[in-house]
Structure formats: C-alpha cells, structure tokens
Amino acid sequence: MATPTASMRDRSGRWLLLATIGNLRLTKEVQGEIRLDRVTFLTASRFQRIQKRLGINRSELRKTLHLERLLKGDQPLAMIRHTGDDKNCLDPLLWQIRKETDVLSFSQLFYCRRDQMASLGLAGEAERGVNSHILLNLKAHTFTATQSKVGKANELTLDRRWKAFHRPFSFLRLVKIAQRRLPVKESWRRELLRAAQLIGKGINSSDLSSAFVWNMVALEVLLTRTNERQSETLPERVEALLGWISDWKTDGMTQRLTAAYQLRCRIVHDGLLNEVTASDVSFTDHILFNVLNNLMRHPKLFASKEHVIRFAELIAAEKLLGRKRTVRPKTLMYVKRRPA
User: Fold this and answer.
1) To 10 degrees, what angle do helices 305-321 and 230-242 make?
2) Predicted model pTM
C-alpha cells in the first residue's frame, strides 16, 4: 500500500473520495452520471467536466499520477463527499460506496435474467476469470483437464433501454426516496435502501444460497418486526399486497412463501446450503420485485413500515369478516416474468 503524502495525513475539513467501479457503464442517456444517496456514480470524463464546480484545484491534481490513471476516458467512478476532521474516514466511505453499489445492482432485478446480471463492485472486488481443473483416474492412469469461467462476465449499462424499463417501476422512485425527494418516514427510507442493498448483494453473488438468503432477509426487513412469528406474518403481509392476483391461489403462493421461509431457516440454523435451487431464487425475485414496486409506487399509503403492517391488518380483517374489499387500492401492480 502506498504511503500517504504529508498533506493527506494532515487532511481535515471537506473531503472527496473517488474510486473505480467494475462492470458498470454509464452512457449519455443518463448524462454519464447517477446519484443515489451519498454516492454519485459517474464517468471519468464527466468528473473532469464538473471538477471545477466541486472546488478542486486542477493544477494541483495534475501532479498526481494516481489521478491520471483514474481519469481515463469513460471509466466508471464512484464519488462521495464528506465534511469533518476525522482522519480515519476512508474505510467508512468505502463501505458507503460498497453499500450504494449494491443498491445500484438492485436495478437489475427483473431488468434481465439472473444469468445476464452483472456483478458490480469496487474495481478488483468483482473480478472474473478462468478456473482450471484436472480429474485424474488413478487406476487407468488417465486424466481429463477442463476449464470453466468464474464470476459474472456481464456489464450493467445505464442507457435508454435501462431508463425505459425503470420508468413505470420502482427503482427511479427509490432514487427519489434516497434523495428525500419523495417524502417517507426516515426510518422507512433507510429500510427501503437496506432491502435494495441486500437484494443487490445477492445479485452480485454467483452463489444461489447467498442470493436466496439475502432475498429472504430483504423481505423480512420490509414486512416484519423483530421478534414476530415471521413464518406466519411474512405470507400474510405479502398476501395483503399481492393476494388479489389470480396466481395467488392457483400457484399456491402462501404455501410457497411458507416453504421459502422454512428453507431460509434450514440454511441459517443448519447450514444446508445445497438445498437452494434456481427456482427458489426466481420465486423470491418475483415476490420482492412486486412487493417493492407496490411499496414505492404508493409512498403516501406506505410511508413507513407501520403503515404497511396496518394495511395488512385491515386487509386481513376484511377477509375474516367477509366484507367487500375497499382498503386495497386498484393501482397495485403485479408483473410476472416468463420462464427463460
């Protein structure tokens, strides 16, 4: 690791951190830039156009060889600013970048199939390569040599197609919530971002069991309180949001959600990682996409988790009493992806 210069060791006041991001491409359709919460993702060329506005001493920066390497062409960067005197800010700022990179990766949910998704991360942390194997037959004195690709070889491109897909759905609304341009309770804003981060973390993983567990934890973050009987409350609250669709009964979705929660428990408590299938991940992808889409399309109705829970209780009461359904708005949406 390079030793920081004296001026960096003495840093205080206003700071700006730039870090390279792997497997991301920002196009002119998004002006080469997208900001989530504290982190802005932008191209190197975009950064060079706005650096004066950021208060950067351009002549001083030209002396920095590291910056010259960083600012090549349309290389994607993450930028975060911080004000304070804490001299140990690097790790927390890198953590924030990783967190918001996961949130950006969440935008791939339903936008493309799992096998087409990119693994986003700080450059070097989402590497892809080739794994070599040799299988020896010790009796016949023969062998088989093979190679397989590891990691995700795809790139997420933020372009016209990406923008068009998200226009009717939740991700662009999540961006507004992150920036506090859509008013929701602050604790709910954090929970929505945390759920998106968890889903994105699963997308960035090539491991099915990790993707499944992060999906289930994201559902719990959105719909349950601590110390509740989640095996019961989770299906009930998903049903409040999606139980009106014809597939709910025909596909046995209550039973599938209960089974998914039981599988989550077997993984967490017994370490049975090999039980997760692609179908399990796909099912939770469908549930999460539609739950989040409806929550964020109705920020006034669902302004906090307590609002969501109260909504589910009213739906359950209507069902129990056999009354006409008046609580659930007609603007709820359900999107079903056809099997690949």
Assistant:
1) 80
2) 0.87
